[in-house]
Amino acid sequence: MIDQVKQKINELFSEGSVKGVVALAHVSGHVTPCLFQKGDDLQGLSLGDLQTSGDARYPLNKVLITIARQYPDDVFGILVRGCDERGLYALYRLKQLEPDKVVPIGICCPQSLALQCECKKPYPDEIIAGEKLEGVLQKHVQDVEDMDRSERFSFWKGQFLKCVKCYGCRDICPMCFCRECSLECEDLVSKGSLPVDIPVFHLTRAMHMADRCIDCGLCDEACPSDIPLRLLYKKIAGIMNTEFGYTSGINKNEKSPLSLMGPEPEK
Amino acid sequence: MEYRNTLTTCTYCGCGCNLFLESLDGRLTGTIPCKTFPVNEGRLCIKGWNGHQFVQSEKRLKKPLMRKNGELTEVSWDEALDFAASKLKEIKQASGPDSVGIFTSAKVTNEENYLMQKFARAAIGTNNIDHCARL
């Protein structure tokens, strides 16, 4: 699989169609986000697997936003899984990236990772390497739905109580790009004290993720308190789907039902 | 165009979480926790997440300053260290070694803290050595 990705990157460089490629690399025994440029050795390229599939995934879209803000006229390639590609679509919609400045290099996730993520679409639309697998049923959301109301309430209260307010869920999130964040607004969230405001802190974030979250699960992996944030956002995404028939990042040009103003996006 | 992630250890406490300091064209742009490091496994506390922010602070002292005629004036390291050493010697001679106290920092390495207590005990001759984490 990695050879096909290397071949694609080499093609892009020899065509001269990209300035650089945002991907992952093996450095000092670890995996790190990296910008490959023409002439760089692709020997160290990584797909984000160190010991198990996808155990070293990083928010590459966030890296691309950082670079693109500085170099808005250049075109960049980027390594994407299904979730990252959904992220790109949502970021185009939110005007954080320009579709004609991005060349996605899509890879499919293996069964183990798809199951672990309970991913609805563990493959990108444009596939360079890997085999397209079926989406996985959302069992964890159903497990929580099956609790009765008071049990569910104490489950979430117990989870939120563990929060240490590191803001890691926001900081790692490839869909969080705002320069001012509601979670730092003192009218909503008290500053410098624990326990966190329950449920305002987590539900404010969940609401803001409603039409954005692309279910990559990086928030879950960054949480030092093991709060099942992804489960919460999956539930919100489920509501968005039931009520509006909308899933963030599934269709390239779809407008969010939460954007009530403004023209239809160009097809 | 130079985008880099430099693997390093968080300076805020003794846990030793590893993180990448992200930089673009020589300027720090962010902190990314290292997912494959066994201590923190891709997690950080709020201090660690913001480790890159103070580096570029305008308020940060970058060169030694000495007050001369009531004004803070930029001086060389040699001048600053010579002045501090001569004053410490003077105080020790006039009032004894226990008139000097030393505070070290949670933001330096274990080895630097060791050196500081060695300096307090062996060079100055006092046990008045403490650490900001106990304040």
Textual characterization of the structure:
The complex is a heterodimer of chains A (267) and B (135). Chain A is α/β, with parallel strands linked by helices and 267 residues long. In chain A, 37% of the residues lie in helices and 10% in strands. Chain A is globular and about 60 Å long. The model of chain B has no long low-confidence stretch (mean pLDDT 92). Chain B has 135 residues and is α+β, with helices and mostly antiparallel strands. Chain B has two domains: 47 residues, N-terminal domain of TfIIb, CATH 2.20.25; 70 residues, no CATH class. The longest helix of chain B is centred in the middle third of the chain and has 19 residues. Classes of the chains: A alpha/beta (267), B alpha+beta (135). The interface between A and B is medium-sized, with 35 and 25 residues.
Strand content of chain A: 5-15%
Proportion of strand residues of chain B:
25-35%
Unreliable residue runs of chain A: none
Low-confidence stretches of chain B: none
Mean pLDDT of chain A: 93
Order of helices and strands of chain A: HEEEHEHEHHHHHHH
- Strand pairing plus helix content of chain A: what structural class? alpha/beta
Whole-angstrom Rg of chain B = 19 Å
Largest sheet of chain A: 5 strands, mixed
Q: What are the key terms here?
A:
heterodimer; A: 267 residues; alpha/beta; 2 domains; 5-stranded mixed sheet; B: 135 residues; alpha+beta; N-terminal domain of TfIIb; 3-stranded antiparallel sheet; two-stranded antiparallel ribbon; 7 strands
